[in-house]
Specification:
Elements: H1 2-12, H2 23-42, H3 44-53, H4 61-65, H5 76-82, H6 95-102, H7 108-111, H8 113-120, H9 122-126, H10 131-145, H11 151-156, H12 159-164, H13 168-188, E1 194-195, E2 198-199, H14 202-205, H15 226-251, E3 258-260, H16 274-285, H17 302-314, E4 319-321, H18 338-345, H19 353-362, H20 366-385, H21 400-407, H22 418-423, H23 429-440, H24 458-467, H25 473-487, H26 501-505, E5 509-511, E6 514-515, H27 520-525, H28 535-548
Parallel strand pairs: 3-4
Antiparallel strand pairs: 1-2, 5-6
Helix pairs in contact: 1-2, 2-3, 10-13, 18-20, 20-23, 25-28
């Protein structure tokens, strides 16, 4: 405002200004400018009042900035002194102005879908350049830690502490992958609302990805914090594929260009370069008039802009099929369903009591038992996923130690203890895992939720004891235990406490296509009136009665 008033005051003097002044003329201008500046500073309140008083008059500062002065009615003398064209405003072409102009016509959304997607989701779209590194970060974590760490390790250790412990020859690759994952997270995560039907908790949405972030937020899993990584990757791949869907008919009409995420390269990602490419192009192709009064008028050719985006950033991109392996924690083999899948592929038999006693004699410490159990979980994970759903049965006669050393190529298979190495086969693997788990847990049901721990009254307890001789407890107890430890614990306890226990257990699998609900003794004699709130107490009652039989 002060500069405008100073320039106006100089113009009002009516003296022509020499653009190549002599020393004397320059000294005169400097003195005049000095006096005007201090005059306005000394009378600043009056200057402001005058400005607002003339706010809507033809010669106010706003009239000049808006280029609303009617130049046709002014004399040549005033035009030469006021120099209206010197101060003309010219709108610069930029993203925000483009968005504003694009939004004026509702039809633009349908006519220019690629441009619409880019303009309405700029920040998430810019994060697509990091997709390759975000996927590689998941692959690195899975290769190094899958089935080897528990959930608590992920919560108690940060990304930085994991990177710090890497060998020198690996650390650079890991750092590049994490940097990409971090950038994708910090730019796109705030826009992710849900994973499938589950809404992301607000506490998680505010998390920033840094070296100090707990590792568990990087481990892709369908439970707890691992949902964040899965949701982010699904969100990014969905955005990428939305662009592909918009252009595939134009560019890939002859064949389907689709790749699995494990094969993605940087050349397959969408890498918008705003400052380097897009803005310079935008400024070059816009049409803007030089006439006084049209300073804010810019005409955009949306068709050309959309085609530029397709030609520069989208040509050659494939559709991406996201294949992220869900992270499996070492202590959650039962929860993941791996035991159930394994039973469908290898017919299982129980360890004899003599074998159990000899195994305990070989494994003399909890550390040894835990080490063998973790190795078993690696084998169970591979066996349960081998061949997908196409392989129904795998021979169970192969020795466990042979499978671990020759198929999995793990030397730890040579240090399982004499009994396991010489007697335990693949058909014993589930029984061995359950046996070792029992040795490690003082209370195997410590994670069962409180809502399933209600005590039985004397009448319910008596009903259970009365029907025990009519039930196949040898078959029922392990199935019931597996149900408790799979579906009645934290993170899985979605079964209502008032639901009847019999109705829930009826869907427990006995073997291929046979469920408890199909067995006559279960249908006739298992108590109908016991709620799931008594599930644990019912199991303990059955267990106690089985020992008396």
């Amino acid at each position: 405002m002060i500069i405008h008033n100073i320039c106006k005051a100089i113009g009002d003097l009516g003296e022509p200004i020499n653009i190549t002044p002599t020393r004397e003329e320059r000294d005169k201008y400097e003195v005049l400018l000095h006096n005007l500046i201090y005059s306005f500073i000394d009378h600043f309140d009056e200057v402001v009042k005058t400005f607002y008083k003339n706010y809507e008059e033809d010669f106010s500062i706003m009239s000049e900035l808006r280029e609303s002065v009617d130049l046709n009615g002014l004399s040549p003398d005033i035009l030469s002194r006021r120099l209206f064209s010197l101060w003309r405003y010219r709108q610069q072409a930029n993203i925000n102005h483009l968005v504003a102009q694009f939004s004026l016509q509702a039809a633009n959304k349908e006519n220019y879908p690629v441009l619409h997607l880019y303009l309405t989701e700029q920040e998430p779209v810019l994060s697509l350049r990091y997709l390759k590194h975000a996927i590689e970060w998941q692959m690195l974590l899975s290769q190094k830690f899958d089935k080897k760490i528990d959930r608590e390790f992920g919560r108690n250790n940060t990304v930085g502490s994991v990177l710090k412990d890497l060998p020198k020859e690996e650390i650079r690759r890991w750092e590049i992958a994490f940097e990409g994952f971090k950038n994708a997270w910090n730019s796109a995560w705030k826009h992710v609302d849900r994973y499938t039907c589950m809404e992301i908790p607000d506490d998680w949405k505010s998390i920033e990805m840094t070296l100090d972030t707990p590792l568990c937020f990087s481990l892709a899993d369908e439970r707890d914090e691992g949902i964040c990584s899965l949701a982010l990757l699904n969100y990014l791949v969905d955005k990428h594929n939305r662009f592909f869907d918009l252009i595939k008919d134009k560019l890939y009409s002859q064949f389907e260009f689709k790749i699995p995420s494990r094969m993605i390269k940087e050349s397959h990602t969408i890498n918008f370069k705003i400052e380097e490419d897009f803005l310079p192009y935008l400024q070059r192709q816009t049409e803007q008039q030089l006439t006084y009064g049209t300073g804010s008028s810019i005409t955009y050719d949306f068709g050309r802009i959309q085609q530029y985006i397709i030609d520069t950033y989208l040509t050659g991109i494939p559709q991406i099929d996201l294949e992220v392996r869900r992270f499996e924690f070492s202590s959650e083999t039962r929860v993941t369903g791996a035991l159930h899948n394994l039973k469908q592929k290898i017919k299982q038999t129980k360890l004899t009591e003599d074998m159990r006693l000899k195994i305990l004699q070989d494994l003399t410490s909890l550390q040894q038992i835990n080490r063998v159990k973790r190795l078993l979980e690696v084998a169970i994970g591979f066996l349960s996923s081998t061949g997908g759903s196409t392989i129904k049965q795998i021979p169970g006669e192969e020795y466990l130690s042979t499978y671990i050393t020759e198929t999995l190529l793990l030397n730890e298979g040579l240090n399982l203890g004499n009994t396991i190495e010489t007697h335990v086969k693949l058909q014993h693997i589930v029984s061995l895992w359950e046996f070792l788990e029992d040795q490690l847990n003082i209370d195997p049901f410590e994670k069962v939720l409180p809502k399933y721990r209600s005590e039985l009254d004397q009448y319910l307890k008596q009903d259970i004891e009365d029907v025990c001789p009519l039930l196949d407890l040898e078959l029922l107890l392990p199935i019931m235990k597996n149900m408790l430890l799979s579906f009645f614990i934290e993170g899985s306890g979605s079964i209502g406490a008032r639901i009847k226990l019999k109705d829930t257990m009826a869907f427990c699998s006995v073997e291929d296509d046979i469920y408890l609900g199909n067995l006559e003794w279960f249908k006739l004699y298992f108590p109908n009136h016991i709620d799931c709130s008594h599930a644990l107490a019912t199991y303990r009652c059955f267990e106690a009665m089985s020992k008396k039989q």
